[in-house]
Write a structure and sequence with these properties.
Cofactor: Mg(2+)
Strand content: 15-25%
Catalytic activity: N-acetyl-alpha-D-glucosamine 1-phosphate = N-acetyl-D-glucosamine 6-phosphate
Number of helices: 18
CATH superfamily of the largest domain: Alpha-D-Glucose-1,6-Bisphosphate, subunit A, domain 3
CATH class of the largest domain: Alpha Beta
Keywords: Isomerase, Magnesium, Metal-binding, Phosphoprotein
Number of strands: 19
Family: Belongs to the phosphohexose mutase family.
Radius of gyration: 24 Å
Strand order of the largest sheet: 1-3-2-4-5
Distance between the termini: 66 Å
Number of domains: 4
Bound molecules: 2-acetamido-2-deoxy-6-O-phosphono-alpha-D-glucopyranose, magnesium ion
Structural class: alpha/beta
Shape: globular
Domain Phosphoacetylglucosamine mutase AMG1: 207-291, 306-443
Amino acid sequence: MSSSLPVDAIKVASDKHPKPSDVRYQYGTAGFRTLGKLLDSVLFRVGILAALRSKRLDGKTIGVMVTASHNPEPDNGVKLVDPRGEMLEASWEAHATTLSNASTTDAFIEALETLVQTAKIDLSKPARVVYARDTRPSGPSLVNALEDGFKAIGAEARDAGVTTTPILHYFVRAINTKGTPYSYGEDSEEGYFTKLGQALKKLVAGRPPVSPLLIDCANGVGAIAAKTLAAHLGDTLPIVLENTAITTEGALNNACGADFVKTSQKLPPSLSNVLKPGQRACSLDGDADRLIYFYLDERGSFHMLDGDKIAGLVAAFIVEQVKIAGLEEQVKVGVVQTAYANGASTKYLQERLPVKCVPTGVKHLHHAAERYDVGVYFEANGHGTVLFSDDTQATLRDYQPSTPAQSRALENLVSLTELINQTVGDALSDMLLVETVLSHKSYTGVEWDSLYVDLPNRLVKVVVSDRNSFKTEDAERRLVSPPGLQSKIDGLVNRYQGGRSFVRPSGTEDVVRVYAEANIRTQADELAFRVAGLVYDEAGGDPASRPKEFL
Ligand code: 16G
Ligand code: MG
């Protein structure tokens, strides 16, 4: 190796970003995430780590996103994006955790030296990064700390400004594929919006005009992106933007946004006088990578169309287009879900195509979806996308259709590969995908909703003394520890018609989550309550979180 770490420059800069002594950081499922005011040293160190990751990958551009997604406004976070626009490789999550916890500048330098050795990083390689942030008030100062990290190690850094998480992922892939046969698009926002807009126009050409779609932007960065998108789409898709108060203190994700809608199964109060019965509406989360649809029926009752409903709608449409195109033999479509998928959605999908269940977290779903020719993955919380393998994209390029119907279906499939952000779940791209299918099927929300009827379900959390004592298997559907607890859960579940329940430790909060569903509402609630009680009794729960009856 021809050069070494610029230790002096790193030391001087690191002293300006000391690690608080009483905090332990962890790079979890969604990167680092905690109160924004605790993250200064983490951002500085992540700047250096991103540069090293780039050097390790021969100067490929690495992405850094500063966001805390659907979390409340005082929180912030940061995550790294690998060269194809996917999540950071798992083995580097541990390096991130180690570097962030080095207690002093000297300990940090030592940890860096060790990383360079063990990961065999050639320091003479260039380091290239692209970074962005959401609209959180703590963003600008955290970005300053990140930039100090880039400067200290001499990385070539490109500021993508304030943008959504999925747009940053798109940039990373676009930059790294520029000028290659796998070119993903122009590496600019203009390029992103043009790509999506053109694909949508092709897909809905000749279809009747649609009524306006209302978007709840969670008072976050999605408001900015959705506004630009609306301008690109014009009459192709009329859009009404709500919850766009990105500068109002405390507004972000507050009683609005995809996580609020999914968790509370309610209409954001801010929309109660705005949304008309029958009108299509959707919510983005704070960094616009999750999407939940909903509508009010004639009687004003709220109906939610979550990630499972999106998976059902989209997978069935793709299967249909593949069949019409005459590609059934060459192109196999599969779906990936987690244990949180509603049992009715799993049944609906399994009757049509292969379905795989994997542990919670985008990276698990993404990797499993890569094994299909076309892999559709969605978490119930609204995060998901569709992946077309390189071979499948080549098949679509080379295929010679023999009828006009085949030809049209083939064009649709090719346009879908352009419309869909294949790097990661993207609320805006997914929204256009849903709108495409609704337009093709002439579905309103009501018809979409009636593809299958959700089983009533309930999600509760229990605070326990040590959530790490909970270990799962079978894609988190069964507990192996604490010993004996699973058989007690099984005993309870058997007493409920259509009953299903599982328990897993959260990856983002210090709690254990309990999910239950059953054929009728009261039974689902009761089952969740009873299983939570078991967990509480077995694991020394905090009295304050003793499960309360919600019947
Ligand atoms: C993170 C994950 C999300 C998962 C959620 C589960 C990413 C980018 N995000 O937000 O996929 O559904 O965590 O949270 O992987 P939990 O472990 O607290 O239930
Ligand atoms: Mg998010």
